[in-house]
Write a structure and sequence with these properties.
Layout lengths: L8 H8 L13 H7 L2 H11 L12 H12 L3 E4 L6 H19 L8 E4 L3 H24 L8 E4 L5 H9 L4 E4 L1 H8 L13 E4 L3 H4 L2 H16 L5 E6 L5 H9 L1 E2 L2 E2 L3 E4 L6 E6 L10 H17 L3 E5 L3 H14 L8 E4 L5 H12 L5 E4 L12 E7 L5 H8 L10 E6 L3 H16 L12 H13 L3 E2 H10 L8 H11 L15 E4 L19 E4 L4 H8 L8 E6 L5 E6 L11 E4 L2 E9 L2 E6 L18 H30 L6 H18 L9 E9 L4 E6 L5 H19 L4 E5 L2 E7 L6 H7 L5 H8 L4 H13 L6 E2 L2 E2 L2 H16 L5 H14 L2 H12 L4 E7 L7 H4 L3 H4 L2 H31 L1
Parallel strand pairs: 1-6, 1-9, 2-4, 2-5, 3-4, 5-6, 10-15, 11-13, 11-14, 12-13, 14-15, 19-23, 24-30
Antiparallel strand pairs: 7-8, 16-18, 17-18, 19-20, 21-22, 22-23, 24-25, 25-27, 26-27, 28-29
Helix pairs in contact: 4-5, 8-10, 10-17, 10-18, 15-16, 16-21, 16-22, 17-19, 21-22, 22-32, 23-25, 26-27, 26-28
């Protein structure tokens, strides 16, 4: 697409030679980029960022220098750069430059030319405010010269008042900031969709946070619908923080044409910022040091860091953790009160969150604690330190979080990570080392999601009728549907046409019709289309209203009331996602008491009081899971550390670890833990890339047999793998198996008199049977019921809103459970199949389980089985996984110390025997 105002000596010289300018292959400097901007835009830029000095080639940041020429040329581009490196400004200044040139030359229509799509309303609001400055100041400069130029911009999302939405029809913004859900609504708005035909630019901000979930899948199809609607193919600009793989995210951004990815350029400046990262540990012995001492040292260190910096952002891994850290800072030190400290997370009211964001942006707060809610969003120009408490579970999350600091160009990003237990110490050590080395965890894009496809096909039918081939072409042009075949399409079409006996009797009605447009009497049904052209259209007079009020992919959620079966006594509430982990007979803690889960009916959970040991920790549903890629890197780290211990003992291991960004306490604590593990259970008691360790403990006091499976592949993998093993064990031993899952492994427990060869079962698992077995293990679970409800509402099988009535999430759950049994009996029913696909692929990481088991079958991964009298140091975390729910922190520390003393006693006994043998 040609753009106005192409200038610049380097560009002119290249094109004068008859060669089109290609920013990807032409070497340019800052001066050439500056000349691309129209004089008035150039003047504004110089006023903002200082005079350009030809000898100083640092006038533009690297992403700006590379991106602006691509935007000038109308080239699709993925700009991958750290937070605070100017990538969003690069996108907008290039687009603003083109729009001002267009308006001055020919004028702009009353229509949209640029769409900015953000995953967060707060981010869209912030960008909207940031656009005010360049647009108004550049317009003022032109006004002083007698030119009247007005580039309008506006924001539109779910909170936009009706009056503002109506005004956009008569005075349409040239730049529109919106969200993925609102874009989908606009594409089906009869009047406003016509305003989108002129769109020439689409900027997708924070695209890495969208690509890995169904919001991104939904957006990818919306972009293809926009592509089909627009007069000319819009230029797509994706802004992403550090992400991998770049080609996947790039192809996700631009989609496909005729089965091949569209062309795009990659601006890879992921590692242009300087990072000052360090892992800190309050002690060199996380087990032996009293918990109170560890806590006191941690808060003293955190207080010192806050006092040494202007503004500090503290990330924790749970909302309750964010509240607790702020509370303890205020309780322990006089330096903090409501005037200079605050907490920010998703459970707080919108007004309260916005007040904290405003004060943080203006530099009024010395410290803010948060969980995940400030990973993305507003610029915080005064922030100069980020502290991460515990492991953020992925390198990408670490870089995203610490990248919030040092937002000014040229500033060093300063981040400090605190590890407070042994397992997180290993995670964080590897994470910081890999971040320093440029490693980033991969993004996995959901593929062929039938619920999202159902929404968009319905939406296109409402705008129709349209040829079936055209609707399929739009759908399969989106990256997540590039491999969407005939079978998937027919399954979807059968659902959307309600082509199942008895479906309408369940109040599930057809949403579309399919017509061959070939009437027997020879008259055209639809004369605008050729005879025999299969068409698709909407069913029902209220189709558009149903679609507009029910679209989107973010599921509603609810809390469940927990009541006892005897007496119907109310004992508290649980978040519904927590039920994903519960099977009948599982024991959990609520309000300090233990309860055995029996069953759920709608939003009521029925339990029995019990004194049994808990099997599911209370925080399970809240913490982020360890990334699979980082888990594999941890296995490699463990192998390398074992090699150094074997060669040179503790001294050589410490020397090696001092090359990592760790403090001395971290170094010594790591070496101590691994050395004790080897001396207690042997070098083959640690999992590595080619070894999976299964540890068996007989607890005669509790009359339990426990297996600790050290599968360090992350909680999603372990959730699926543990379900698979529990299913196989239950078949082999006809015993109830209790499962407790963590990121670094899981435990299986059963009665002492049930002996099962777990290592043999793992070795015999055929990767080709994994999906079928996992699917069978889900039957009747609350996990399946919840995900079916979510997918039924996304697929519009269940309507959240209809004729002014709104169903709550708990009411949706009741309705969906009435449908599930019927739907499971239908052949290849799209909503049921998507429910299983999402659970297996997106939640339980079935592909990784198949890969690991394939390596086991091929002999590339050995199964090492160990029997122990007491858990080994590597199993401490699994053995005490649930202790924090039933004992005080001091008592949990005592349990760990008891385990540790047993290990030390065993090591001492072995050394005594060895010494006696040598003497003899």
């Amino acid at each position: 697409m040609e753009r106005e105002g192409r200038t610049g000596a380097a560009f002119d010289a290249v094109e004068a030679a008859g060669v089109p300018f290609d920013p990807a292959t032409t070497t340019i400097d800052d001066g050439d980029v500056l000349e691309l901007l129209a004089p008035v835009v150039r003047e504004w830029w110089v006023d903002q960022f200082g005079a350009y000095v030809p000898s100083n080639d640092g006038f533009f940041t690297p992403p700006q220098k590379e991106a602006i020429p691509h935007i000038h040329e109308g080239t699709n581009a993925l700009i991958c750069a750290p937070t605070g490196s100017g990538k969003t400004l690069a996108s907008f200044i290039g687009i603003i430059n083109e729009l001002f040139a267009r308006d001055r030359a020919d004028g702009l229509e009353n229509a949209v030319y640029c769409l900015y799509v953000s995953p967060l309303k707060s981010l869209a609001n912030d960008i909207h405010r940031n656009l005010e400055v360049p647009l108004s100041e550049i317009a003022d400069r032109l006004d002083e010269r007698g030119e009247s130029v007005d580039i309008r911009h506006a924001i539109r999302h779910g909170d936009t008042p009706d009056a503002e939405r109506s005004r956009m029809l008569t005075e349409t913004p040239h730049i529109l900031n919106t969200t993925p859900e609102t874009l989908a609504i606009l594409l089906n708005s009869p009047k406003f969709r016509e305003k989108l035909r002129t769109v020439e630019y689409v900027v997708v901000d924070e695209i890495h946070s969208l690509a890995e979930n169904k919001r991104g899948t939904h957006l990818s199809v919306s972009l293809e619908r926009l592509e089909a609607l627009a007069d000319e193919s819009p230029t797509r600009i994706g802004c992403s923080a550090t992400v991998e793989p770049l080609d996947t995210v790039g192809e996700f951004l631009v989609g496909c044409e005729d089965g091949e990815p569209r062309d795009y350029e990659l601006v890879d400046t992921r590692f242009v910022r300087e990072y000052d990262l360090e892992l800190r540990c309050p002690t060199d012995d996380l087990v032996g040091t009293p918990r109170g001492v560890v806590t006191e040292r941690f808060y003293d260190a955190l207080h010192d860091l806050v006092q040494d910096h202007t503004n500090t952002l503290v990330f924790t891994n749970t909302r309750s953790g964010a509240e607790r850290v702020l509370h303890n800072l205020r309780e322990r030190y006089d330096a903090y009160d409501e005037d200079n400290s605050a907490c920010h997370h998703g459970s707080l009211s919108k007004d309260r969150r916005q007040a904290v964001e405003r004060r943080l942006k203006e530099g009024e707060l010395d410290v803010v604690t948060t969980s995940t809610s400030l990973e993305l969003g507003i610029d915080m120009p005064h922030l100069d330190l980020v502290v991460q408490v515990g492991s953020p579970k992925s390198v990408a999350a670490l870089l995203q979080r610490v990248g919030r600091a040092g937002h000014q160009v040229g500033e060093t990003v300063t981040g400090r990570v605190f590890a407070l237990d042994r397992d997180e110490l290993v995670e964080c050590a590897v994470m910081l080392a890999k971040a320093k080395a440029g490693f980033v965890d991969r993004v996995f894009v959901p593929e062929n999601a039938q619920d999202v496809a159902a929404q968009h096909v319905y939406g296109m039918a409402i705008n129709g009728p349209r040829p079936e081939r055209e609707i399929r072409r739009v759908l399969t042009s989106a990256y997540p549907y590039r491999n969407y075949g005939d079978d998937e399409w027919e399954t979807l079409a059968r659902y959307l046409t309600a082509d199942y006996p008895g479906l309408e009797s369940k109040n599930v009605y057809p949403k579309i019709w399919r017509d061959e447009n070939d009437p027997p009497d020879g008259e055209y049904h639809y004369p605008d289309f050729p005879v025999g052209e299969p068409l698709i259209g909407k069913r029902g007079r209220l189709a558009r209203v149903i679609y507009m009020t029910n679209l989107g992919t973010i599921p509603d959620s609810f809390t469940c009331n927990v009541v006892t079966r005897s007496g119907d006594e109310w004992v508290g509430q649980l978040d519904e996602s927590y039920l994903d982990t519960l099977e009948p007979g599982e024991v959990f803690v609520l309000g300090g008491d233990r309860f055995e889960y029996r069953y759920r009916r709608g939003s009521k959970v029925y339990v029995d009081r019990t004194s049994s040991r808990p099997t599911v920790p209370s925080w399970f549903s809240e913490r982020l899971p360890l990334s699979y890629d980082l888990g594999r890197e941890i296995l490699s780290f463990q192998s390398d550390l074992l090699d150094r211990l074997e060669r040179g003992g503790r001294p050589e291991a410490r020397v090696w670890l001092r090359e990592f960004p760790l403090d001395e306490n971290s170094v010594r604590s790591l070496v101590r833990a691994f050395d004790e593990q080897v001396r207690y259970a042997g070098p083959d008691s640690v999992s590595t890339p080619d070894r999976l360790v299964i540890e068996e403990e007989l607890d005669r006091n509790e009359y339990e047999r426990r297996y600790y499976v050290h599968s360090n592949y992350g909680r999603r993998f372990n959730d699926g793998f543990s379900r698979l093993l529990a299913y196989r064990i239950a078949q082999a031993a006809t015993a109830n198996v209790n499962v407790a899952v963590a990121d670094h492994g899981f435990s299986l427990s059963m009665p002492l008199n049930r002996k099962v060869d777990v290592a043999g079962i793992v070795a015999d698992l055929d990767p080709e049977d994994v999906r079928a077995d996992l699917r069978a293990s889900l039957d009747g679970t609350d996990l399946l019921k919840r995900y079916f409800r979510i997918n039924a509402t996304r697929s519009l099988m269940l309507l959240k809103r209809y004729k002014g009535y709104e169903k709550s999430a708990s009411q949706q759950q009741v309705s969906s459970e009435m449908l599930l049994g019927f739907a499971q009996d239908l052949e290849d029913f799209a909503v049921v199949e998507e429910t299983y696909r999402e659970i297996l692929e997106d939640k339980l990481n079935v592909a990784a389980i198949e890969d690991v088991l394939g390596d086991v079958q091929a002999g590339e991964v050995e199964i090492a089985h160990h029997r122990v009298d007491s858990p080994s140091p590597k199993a401490f975390g699994l053995a005490t996984l649930l202790a924090s729910d039933v004992v005080l922190a001091e008592d949990e520390s005592a349990v760990l110390q008891e385990f540790h003393q047993r290990v030390l006693d065993h090591i001492e006994d072995d050394e005594r025997v060895e010494a006696a043998f040598e003497e003899s």
